[in-house]
Amino acid sequence: MAQPDIPTQLLIQSNAADQMTVKSRDGEKIGYVFSFMINKRSGQALYAVLTIGGFLGIGKAYYPLPFQLLAYDPANDGYQVTIDRRLLEGGPSWANNPPLFDQSYADRVASYYGVASESLALDTTGTDAL
User: Fold this and answer.
1) From CA 47, how far away is CA 56, in angstroms rounded?
2) Rounded to 10 degrees, what is the CA torsion of 110, 66, 83, 26?
3) Tens of pLDDT along 29-71?
4) Helix (H, G, I), strand (E, B) or coil at 95
5) In whole angstroms, what is the distance from residue 113 CA to residue 48 CA?
6) Where does residue 64 rank: exposed (0-12), middle (13-18), buried (19+ CB within 10 A)?
7) Coil, helix or strand for 86?
8) Percent helix, strand, coil in the chain (nearest 5)?
9) What is the tens place of the pLDDT at every residue in 96-108?
10) Residue 49: enclosing H or E segment and its boundaries?
C-alpha cells in the first residue's frame, strides 16, 4: 500500500490555499479553503473562507470561519473543523457576491460561532491612511 505524501513544510502560499481540504471531526470531507482573510497589520490569518458544494464552479457557497475553529491535520495535510458541519452550514455565507467584510460583518461571524470578535479598526493616528 502506498504511503500518503507527507507534507515537507508548514508554510503554504496563499494562492495554493484552495488545495487544502477541510474535513469534519469524523473525517468527512466538507470542502476546501477558498481564501484566507489576513490582518494587514499583523499578517495573521483571522478567517478562512471555506468553499462547500457546487459542481464545476456552479452552486458553491462560501463560509467565513474564524481561523481558531480550524485545526491543522499534518497526517492529511489539511484542516479539520472543530465544530459540527450543520453549525457551519447554518452560519454566515454567500453564494455569488461576497459581503463587505467590515466590523459589523466580523462581529456577526464571531457572534454566530461564539468566539471573541477581532477589531478591524484602522489605526487612528493616521499611519494606516497611507
Assistant:
1) 25
2) 170
3) 888 898 898 888 888 889 999 988 766 556 688 999 999 999 9
4) coil
5) 13
6) buried
7) helix
8) 20, 30, 50
9) 888 888 999 999 9
10) strand 45-52
What is the grid cell recorded at 39?
490582518
- Whether 20 and 35 have beta carbons less than 8 Å apart is answered as no
Q: What integer is the mean pLDDT of 72-84?
A: 87
Q: Which three cell numbers stand for residue 49?
A: 473562507
Among 46, 92, 38, which Cα is nearest to 69's?
Answer: 46
Residues 6+ apart with CB under 8 A from 23: 29, 30, 73, 76, 78, 79, 80, 81
* Measured distance CA(111)–CA(127) in Å, rounded: 30
Grid cell, residue 10, equals: 508548514
Grid cell, residue 26, equals 469524523
Confidence of residue 1 (pLDDT cuts 50, 70, 90): very low
In the chain, the domains with their CATH numbers are 17-115 (2.30.30.240)
Beta bridge partners of 52: 61
Nearest to 50 by CA among 61, 42, 40, 39: 61
Which three three-digit cell numbers place residue 21?
481540504
